[in-house]
Amino acid sequence: MRWDRGPGAPDQAVLVDLNHERGYFFFIEIWPQEVYYLTGLLVLAAVGLFLATSLAGRVWCGYACPQTVWTDLFMWVERQIEGDRSARIRLDKQPLSTGKIGRKTAKHAAWLAIAFLTGGAWIMYFVDAPTVVGDFFTGAASETVYFFVGLFTATTYLLAGMAREQVCTYMCPWPRFQAAMLDEDSLVVTYNRHRGEPRGPIRKGEKRDETGHCIDCKQCVAVCPTGIDIRDGLQLECIGCGLCVDSCNEIMARVGLPPNLIAFDTERRMAQRAAKEKPAYRLIRPRTVLYFFILLGVAGLMVFALATRDDQGVNVLHDRTLFVRLSSGAIQNSYDVKVLNKARTARRFDLTVEGLPGAKIVLVGRSTEPAARVAVSAPPDGLGEYRLHVRAPAAGITGEETKIRFVVTGEDGGTAVRETTFRGPKAQNR
User: How far apart are CA 100 and CA 106, in angstroms?
Assistant: First the structure.
């Protein structure tokens, strides 16, 4: 997607430009020193995940996690080429033949194509997409591009095609602490034990008055991508996909029993049903309110920071030499100053020093006479870099370190301030 930012600027809507140290997201441009916006996004993502888990269990894992989505897509391709589970087992047991080799080759070729088009394509968030696609297929792309396309393609192919649910069980950290986000009102995949037990197979003409509705067909185990038995309770491996719910409802329909023996439900509602009470779902509770207001607060802070941020700035670095005493008796400190211009046009600024009586500035290589105010400039969306000396009469220096402020004032009256120190000799040596 294209997004016009003016002449000389990248026109890709979403771009992390590592070469030029910029991040672009539609009308927002992030500079390196504004990495706190990334921190804010990570906090929003984490708290949003906490809130979603408190409300609906591992809904992220079951329906939105890229690992789950890729795995489902790879398994769908596998079914289309090799058939259902029974057909795949029979195919694996067959001796090597042209047909078997053809199906296996087609499956893995399709997996690699998907991994390349989805995993490998992640590089297009970091370089201009149309340009890198053309360069890639003409051999003009850099070695870095080919390396990362290969890396992302290979990891997508291995994780979604081979590892699958092992990633969720052994590699993902989220199952380890998701229990801290859950409570008895979280909507999770549950087995209605009070209705299903005691379980047992169904026989023709048998009434289920003395036994539970679970016929122990184990279809819930067969369809579970992580191979758990949900009848043993909620477990670390459960990703909340609900396949066991669908499978159990199909079996219940076949044997003429009510659905939702396995269902998305809460522990509180299950206990209420077992006690013959009216089940109720509590959406508003302390943890969900807390997560919501944290989410709202962080989002509000980020919006406020974006709306009020300046389009200019200044960074100051003191020279390694502490100070120099001039022949006139004045004390001189040297600094490297960077003037930030976030606008799309070149701009001029006035640079002054505050907090030090009689301080004058000399721009190295640009002026020889000290002045209380000097003019500097910065290119469009860039930095103006300067080396300068600050000189002050020794009589006005009261300590070894004096706090001073560099003030950059734009043509529109906006200012940027950076505090630093001005170093001088000890009092007895003045």
Answer: 10
Report the Cα–Cα distance between both ends of the chain, in Å, rounded: 64
Torsion of CA 88, 89, 93, 96, to 10 degrees: 10
Coil, strand or helix: which one is 20? Answer: coil
The SS3 assignment for 362 reads strand
pTM for this entry: 0.78
The answer for residues whose C-beta is within 8 angstroms of residue 55's C-beta and 6 or more apart is 186, 187, 283, 288
- 380, pLDDT greater than 90: no
CB of 309 closer than 8 Å to CB of 302: no
Phi then psi for 215, rounded to 5 degrees? -95, 10
Taking 90 as the threshold, does the pLDDT of residue 428 lie above it?
no
**346 in Cβ contact with 377 (< 8 Å):** yes
Dump pLDDT digits (tens) for 54-64: 999 888 988 89
Residues 6+ apart with CB under 8 A from 150: 120
Contact 294, 47 (CB under 8 A): yes
Residue 1 CA neighbour count, 13 Å, CB half: 8
Q: Is the peptide bond before 95 cis (omega within 30 degrees of 0)?
A: no
C-alpha atoms less than 13 angstroms from C-alpha of 258 in its C-beta half-sphere:
8
**pLDDT score at 312:** 87
pLDDT at 51: 93
In the structure, how many helices (H) and strands (E) does the chain have? 14, 14
Q: Residues with Cβ < 8 Å from 202, sequence gap 6 or more?
A: 208, 215, 255
Residue type, 16: V
> What is the structure's pLDDT at 344?
83
pLDDT at 58: 86
CB 31 within 8 A of CB 158: no
Cα–Cα distance between 341 and 147 in angstroms, integer? 35
pLDDT digits (tens, 9 = 90+) for 20-43: 888 999 988 888 888 889 899 999
Cβ contact 182:188 at 8 Å: yes
* Residues 14 and 26 sit within 8 Å (Cβ to Cβ): yes
What does the pLDDT read at residue 205? 65
**Which residues neighbour 66 within 8 Å (Cβ) at sequence distance 6 or greater?**
none
Furthest-apart CA atoms within the chain: distance in Å:
113
Q: How far apart are CA 165 and CA 353, in angstroms?
A: 61
Cα–Cα distance, 215 to 217 (Å, whole number): 6
Could you give the C-alpha distances from 247 to 41, 133, 306, in angstroms and in order?
38, 43, 49
Backbone angles phi, psi at 427, to 5 degrees: -60, -40
